[in-house]
Design goal:
The protein contains 11 helices and 4 strands. Helix 5 crosses helix 6 and helix 6 runs antiparallel to helix 8. Belongs to the cytochrome P450 family.
C-alpha cells in the first residue's frame, strides 16, 4: 500500500500520469536497477592493483593504513590462516562503498530534516561552525571539534538509525536466558527498537536532554 501510494504521488507530480498508467515503466526501472546492480558486482576495483604497485615501487611491505590498505595487506599475509583472497578484497570494497554511501545518505537526509524542524538547533550549529572556521574552508581537524554538530548527528543516528536492523547467524547452539538458539539460525536485531526501548533507557528515552549520554555532552559544552 505504501509503495503504491508513493509511486502514485511520484508519477502524478513528476509525469502528470497515474501510477497505474505508468506501471510498466516503474517495473522496467526496477528491473534495470537489478541489472545495474549485478553488473556492478562483477566489476573489478582498479585501485587495488594501484595500491599494490605503489607499495612495490616504494619497496615496502605495507600498503597504507586506510581500509583498502589493510585489506590488501591481509591478502599478502604470510600466515595462510589469516590471508584473504583477492575476491574477498573486492567484495569487501564493494560492500563498504555501497553500504557506506547508502547509510551516509540516510544520515544526512534525517539530519537535515531535524535541523529544518528544530531551527533553534540549526542556528546553534551555524554559530559554532562560523565561530570555529570563520571564512576558512572546513578541515578535518576543526570538524572534530564541532561539539554541537556532533550531538545533532548522534541524535539523528539515535532517532533514525540508517540500519534499522542487524542480522547475525548462530554458529553453534547457544543458551540465551530461557531460550535455546540452534545452529544456522538467523537473528534479526532491531536497532530502532533498542534505541527506543524504555526498559533499557528509562521513560525519558525520547527526551534528548534527559538521557545520561547527552547530559555529559551538555556539561562538557558549558565547561569548555
Amino acid at each position: 500500500m505504501g509503495r503504491l501510494l508513493s509511486s502514485e504521488v511520484t508519477s502524478r507530480i513528476a509525469f502528470g500520469n497515474s501510477y497505474i498508467e505508468g506501471k510498466n515503466i516503474f517495473e522496467m526501472l526496477t528491473k534495470l536497477g537489478f541489472i545495474i546492480y549485478k553488473i556492478f558486482l562483477t566489476i573489478r576495483v582498479p585501485v587495488i592493483r594501484k595500491k599494490e604497485e605503489k607499495a612495490m615501487a616504494r619497496g615496502e611491505g605495507r600498503f597504507g593504513s586506510d581500509y583498502l590498505g589493510l585489506l590488501v595487506e591481509a591478502q599478502h599475509d604470510d600466515n595462510d590462516n589469516q590471508r584473504i583472497s583477492a575476491d574477498k578484497v573486492v567484495d569487501d570494497c564493494k560492500t563498504f562503498y555501497m553500504s557506506g554511501q547508502e547509510t551516509t545518505t540516510t544520515l544526512l537526509s534525517w539530519t537535515v530534516f531535524l535541523l529544518a524542524v528544530h531551527t533553534d538547533w540549526q542556528e546553534e550549529a551555524r554559530k559554532e561552525v562560523i565561530q570555529l572556521f570563520g571564512k576558512e574552508t572546513p578541515h578535518s581537524d576543526g570538524i572534530a571539534k564541532l561539539k554541537i554538530m556532533s550531538m545533532i548527528i548522534n541524535e539523528s543516528l539515535w532517532l533514525y538509525p540508517p540500519l534499522v536492523s542487524i542480522i547475525r547467524k548462530v554458529e553453534r547452539e547457544v543458551r540465551l536466558g530461557k531460550l535455546t538458539l540452534p545452529p544456522n539460525l538467523d537473528l534479526v536485531i532491531s536497532t530502532i527498537a533498542i534505541h527506543h526501548d524504555p526498559e533499557i533507557w528509562g521513560e525519558d528515552v525520547h527526551l534528548s536532554n534527559q538521557r545520561d549520554f547527552w547530559k555529559g555532552l551538555l556539561k562538557q559544552l558549558t565547561t569548555t
